[in-house]
Amino acid sequence: MYKNQLQELAQRSCFNLPSYTCIREGPDHAPRFKATVNFNGEVFESPSFCTTLRQAEHSAAEVALHALANRGPSHSLAARILDETGVYKNLLQEIAQRVGAPLPSYKPVRSGLGHLPVFTCTVELAGIIFTGEPAKNKKQAEKNAAMAAWSSLKQCESHAYVVIY
């Protein structure tokens, strides 16, 4: 999944396709693999060794996508394309699964004229509701809501502090 998303991002951005390199270690009966991916001149590495080459490449692609997504929305071409691929919806789903919360719930609302609809969408994650920017279609409205949620959560994370009792 992550390799496909990274390849799609490269194609939409008119970048060269991601290129993977791999290190293999261990005996023939139990090899371990660690991969790196070069994406638009940046190299991202899988965090640990994997049992298959495919897992290692997916792990490196996941690291790349998370790193690019953590930079947040911006006006650069790569970031805009990343926003459009829907990676924020995937990230919200992963967060929900990690904390044991229900999967994100999207509620799009259609307004505007029949031939010029406007869609707005909210997404609920762990009891918190986030609202995205309006869009011309339901799919983009959902992506906008996910992006708004992700951006808000990243801001909360950077302002978070620990209170010790």
From TrEMBL:
UniProt entry keywords in alphabetical sequence: Repeat, RNA-binding
Domain DRBM, first and last residues per copy: 1-70, 87-155
Source superkingdom: Eukaryota
Range of residues in the leader sequence: none
InterPro entries: AtDRB-like_DSRM_1, AtDRB-like_DSRM_2, dsRBD_dom
Gene3D superfamilies assigned: 3.30.160.20
Listed GO MF terms: double-stranded RNA binding
Task performed by this protein: Binds double-stranded RNA.
Name of protein: Double-stranded RNA-binding protein 2-like
